[in-house]
Design brief:
The chain is of the alpha+beta class and 126 residues long. The chain has four helices and three strands; from the N terminus they run ααβαββα. β2 and β3 form a beta hairpin. The protein has one domain: Arc Repressor Mutant, subunit A. The chain is 39% helix and 11% strand.
């Protein structure tokens, strides 16, 4: 993330690219529910999921889950921590807040442009 945890357009593109895979989106959605207390994630019911449990009810093999977690981590969307033999995974709250701001405020407007000819580009105002 950039200064002040506000993603720039390149960082938003990386986030959206990471979420473009349906299975990866399912994993991330599950992790965001853990942040909100919506799921009983691990046995101690904290705000994380154990990596080994992520693919079980999503019909995703462990190696594929590992690949998807790597892509989400590379995009800065999740955090991980090893605890004994388990790896804890959770959604980065700062990214969730940035996405909420992007879609829920006027910030999204600055990224929508009309197709341009020469130097006549302008921002669409919805």
């Amino acid at each position: 993330m950039s200064k002040d945890n506000i993603p720039n357009t390149v960082e938003y593109a990386e986030i959206f690219k990471a979420l473009s895979n349906p299975k990866r989106l399912q994993i991330y959605t599950r992790l965001t529910h853990c942040n909100n207390g919506g799921l009983s994630c691990c046995s101690d019911e904290r705000n994380y999921e154990c990596a080994g449990n992520l693919g079980k009810d999503l019909d995703i093999s462990p190696s594929t889950v590992s690949h998807h977690l790597k892509e989400l981590y590379r995009a800065g969307m999740i955090k991980t921590a090893r605890h004994a033999q388990r790896i804890r995974v959770w959604a980065d709250q700062g990214v969730l807040n940035s996405l909420a701001d992007f879609f829920g405020s006027n910030n999204a407007k600055q990224y929508i442009f009309l197709p341009c000819k020469f130097d006549n580009c302008r921002i669409l105002n919805y």
